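I hope you will forgive my troubling you with a question about protein structure. Could you please explain, in whatever detail you think fit, how the structure tokens follow from the sequence? Thank you for your consideration; the sequence and its tokens are set out here.
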Amino acid sequence: MRRGIRYVFNNRFAIAFLVVLASALCFAQNTNDNEQKPNVVLILADNLGFGDVGCYGSGGEMRGMPTPNIDRLASEGVRLNQFLVETGCTPSRAALQTGRYSIRSGLSRIVVPGGKNQLQPFEYTLGNLFKYQGYSTIYYGKWHLGERSESEPQYFGYDQWCFGFYGSSEGTQNASHMTIYGVPEELRKAGVMYVREATSPKTPSKELFPFDLTYRPKIDNEITDDAVNYVREHAKSDKPFFIFMSMTRPHFPNIPSEEFKGKSRIGDYGDCVMELDHNVGRMMQAIKDAGIEENTIFVFVSDNGPTITTTLINELHVASAGPWRSELGTAFEGSIRTIGMIRWPKRFKPQVAEGMFSIMDFLPTFARILDAKLPTDRPIDGVDQFDYLLGKQDYSNRDHLITFLGSRLVAVRWRQWRIYPVNFYPTDNNPRVDGAMGYMNETAGAPMLFNIEADPRERRDVILENTWVMRPYARIIAEYMVTLKEHPNPPAVDVTKF
């Protein structure tokens, strides 16, 4: 009998011990998981072309503007050889934040001053993803997703918005040009851009000082100064951080700082690309000096292809899309294929990823890394690319991408095939301009088809030899159209159609 009592006692003791042990292990595992959450730095360049940096083979030193830091980042991480974006600043930034085609947010055209389109409160963003996972979050610089308080970054998961502004860098010219042309005082006041700041979540930003041609050369350097300090202050915190740096280089007007004036061999554009590279290097060094390089994900991407002709006179034909056709504003490859790389020493081996990777894919990929769930009440067009980046699979999880301009579907990319129901061509002005300032018209009925592996400049339409491509083309569009039955797109705002 005593033996039985002892047996029961021992079993109870063993069970209790196992419960305590399991709880301790669970606590330790959770603590370890928290400790292992990576810090994340995402730097977004503005209109940097595929042919502007050295690591993609047709820029950098060979074009008189060395980019050693960006090249080193690419060599230490995963260089995305088919990093695909949307056709303009606002569309790409909406797609990056939401993981969705920008047309689903009504943001498939560039937001202009006084425009009605803006990021809506129900949207789920990168900021929300990281904030809900316990991160400290900060957004620097250009947002370009609306000009109302409720559409600002601090309403979408970011703790702060620093060195922010509405619109884009060309607005820095407003004050001087309005003075030259004798614009009425009321309009002049409305047209001045301001640097803005929000120091806490869900509070409207405040105007600090004008973002004009005087401040234009300084803003990216001051963003980087602040971001370096942010790394130093947060590196030893129990909370991981997410830093989003939306840089203004090399969007026109390119005015280099005194330190970089004349550094390149090709003028202001090259000087500013080198200055951008320098600031990327400063952030890389800050992460290293803080002792957190091993478990920090460092992303560097461009929001669009270059502005080759849609730019100022002194910058005409300086930017480059490398071997690809066209520039920002069309649907050709040079508009939507640009710079992208991601480094995570702890998990990613250096490699060149040849498969397609969309700017929308970051949201689901980061969700996978953080073991977070995305909303299920809306279409998410991005795909999880984590295993591809890890090298666990040698293929991308993406084989197609649709491109929109306003409400118009203007291209489908499937594997190496580019399919267009419309055509784009330059103006007859002097100088002739293409891209966002060029023309678009319908084809006569059959779409154009190009094989970009055989014909990167997209010069020879091969639809007559390859009509079979119409099947995947029709399937991709049909699958997208099905999603609109339950989730119709809001109206796309267009400043040329009313």
Notes: The mean pLDDT is 92. DSSP finds twelve helices and 17 strands in the chain.
